[in-house]
Design a protein that fits this description.
Blueprint: E1 5-11, E2 14-19, H1 28-32, H2 38-52, E3 59-60, H3 72-85, H4 88-94, H5 104-114, E4 125-128, H6 131-142, E5 148-152, H7 156-164, E6 171-172, E7 177-178, E8 181-185, E9 204-208, H8 220-233, E10 236-240, E11 266-271, H9 273-276, E12 284-287, H10 300-311, H11 317-326, H12 329-355, E13 360-362, E14 368-372, H13 378-389, E15 391-392, E16 394-395, E17 406-410, H14 415-429
Parallel strand pairs: 3-15, 5-8, 5-9, 9-10, 10-11
Antiparallel strand pairs: 1-2, 4-12, 6-7, 11-12, 13-14, 14-17, 16-17
Helix pairs in contact: 3-4, 3-11, 5-11, 6-7, 6-10, 12-14
This protein binds D-malate.
Residues 63-64, 132, 155, 212 line the site of D-malate.
């Protein structure tokens, strides 16, 4: 306490001690995090670059943030929702708090559009403000001290939220891994599908397909193995399908629920962000099947419903109107076109790196191209690309230790920026 005493002042007859710090100890789990969240860190480096070189015309192939406008039929849906909120009838229908789990019509439409085989029913769908938020809320659902497995490399929110929620022991600087988190290495030698035996003790398995960052989409056979593994070991898979609409390979399912038995061992998150440009608008959903049960037989869905109603008040009614418009025939076609546009960007980037002499992965069933820089330190490659080309990419090691030696190029860009980026890269890096 002595060190905390900073100053005092007098109010009436009282002398109030003012402390420079509070008496609240820091959450030790926050203290375990080794670095800031990946994308703000990259942004900080980009801004430092701009301070040194204010005229640099930076092109971002970094964070997977959409760039194209939201298509007109979807905007129209939101405009009529906004106008409706200004009328007594419209406000009575959709104003104020909606159902915490999402508007019934939207849940029905998500079920029929994204799960056309009837594998998911509307009441198993919980509409939210996005996959990333749901991932953290799922961590809250399971509580601390779980054995967690992640693909390595994978979306950094899985590991960071695991650390924050108390699953991890300390960070090992030599392996660059947190203790008590199982890193399932995914690389070209195993076709980016991990050896599941390493996850035999894992209660929770995060699995993303197509994978962010490698772009690898798991096949039906691989997902069948994943489901069988989870069922044998009694684990729960948290399946991130945020990029599933980019899958073109018919052997690769767009949902884990296409696999028989997944309803007894999996939760799936998905989002409108990368399909319709909703990264800022925020709308996603999580499927928690009726048949998924905790060890004592209690319903996971019932607890999720309880948790969502306590921590969340439902997605914005305007965003939900946008979601509904995405699922009309016109909206669906426009969204499919948008995904197709970004896929073309991905194929331009992939071809460019290959023409330059680099080995690439992904970029076919995903909006990310995973480029091998032959074992070079990925932060060094990131810096070199930024300095030589004024291009921001994402260093592979930001997604886990197995990502070192790679960079990820995002296809979310205007076409002219993508083409300009390819020219700059070819000039500076052709082997
Ligand atoms: C990424 O760039 O990996 C992510 O898509 C960003 C995000 O969605 O949180």
């Amino acid at each position: 306490l002595v060190a905390r005493r900073a100053a005092s002042y007098t109010t009436g007859r009282r002398v109030v001690q003012v402390h420079a710090v509070t008496n609240v100890s820091r959450n030790p789990n926050m203290g375990k995090l080794k670095a800031g969240y990946l994308f703000p860190e990259i942004n900080r480096i980009k801004n430092a670059h701009l301070e040194k070189k204010p005229d640099a015309a930076i092109i971002s192939l970094g964070i997977g943030d959409t760039t194209e406008p939201i298509p007109a039929p979807i905007i129209d849906g939101m405009i009529s929702s906004v106008s409706g909120l200004g009328t007594p009838a419209g406000y009575a229908k959709y104003g104020g708090y909606g159902p915490g789990e999402g508007q019934a019509e939207l849940r029905e439409k998500i079920a029929s559009r994204f799960y056309p085989g009837g594998e998911v029913s509307a009441d198993e769908i919980f509409v939210s403000d996005g996959s990333k938020c749901d991932i953290s809320r799922l961590q809250m659902l399971f509580g601390p001290n779980r054995n967690v497995a992640v693909q390595d490399p994978s979306y950094p929110a899985y590991v960071d939220s695991s650390v924050m929620n108390g699953h991890a022991t300390s960070f090992d600087a030599s392996t660059k891994q947190y203790g008590n988190i199982t890193y399932l290495s995914c690389n070209s030698n195993n076709n980016f599908f991990p050896n599941l035996a390493h996850a035999n003790d894992s209660e929770i398995i995060f699995f993303c397909s197509p994978n962010n960052p490698t772009g690898a989409a798991a096949t039906r056979e691989q997902l069948t193995d994943l489901v069988a593994h989870a069922k044998e070991n009694g684990s729960i898979i948290i399946y991130d399908a945020a990029y599933a609409s980019y899958i073109e390979n018919p052997d690769c399912p767009k949902s884990i629920f296409e696999i028989p038995g997944a309803d007894e061992c999996a939760i799936e998150t998905c989002s409108f962000s990368k399909y319709a440009g909703f990264t800022g608008l925020r709308l996603g959903w999580t499927v928690v099947p009726e048949n998924l049960k905790f060890a004592d037989g209690f319903s996971v869905k019932a607890d999720w419903n309880r948790l969502m109603n306590t921590t969340f008040n439902g997605a914005s009614n305007v965003a939900q109107a946008g979601g509904l418009a995405c699922l009309s025939d016109e909206g669906w076609n426009a969204m499919t076109e948008l995904v197709g546009f970004y896929k073309e960007n991905a194929s331009i980037l992939k071809r460019t790196f290959e023409d330059m002499g680099y080995t690439t992965y992904g970029g076919t069933n995903a909006p990310y191209v995973w480029v091998s820089f032959d074992g070079q330190d990925s932060w060094e490659v990131f810096t070199e690309i930024l300095e030589k080309c004024d291009i921001v990419v994402t260093p592979g090691s930001g997604f886990g230790p197995a990502g070192d030696g790679f960079i990820r190029a995002s296809a979310f860009g205007h076409r002219d920026s993508i083409l300009e980026a390819t020219e700059r890269l070819k000039k500076a890096f052709t082997k």
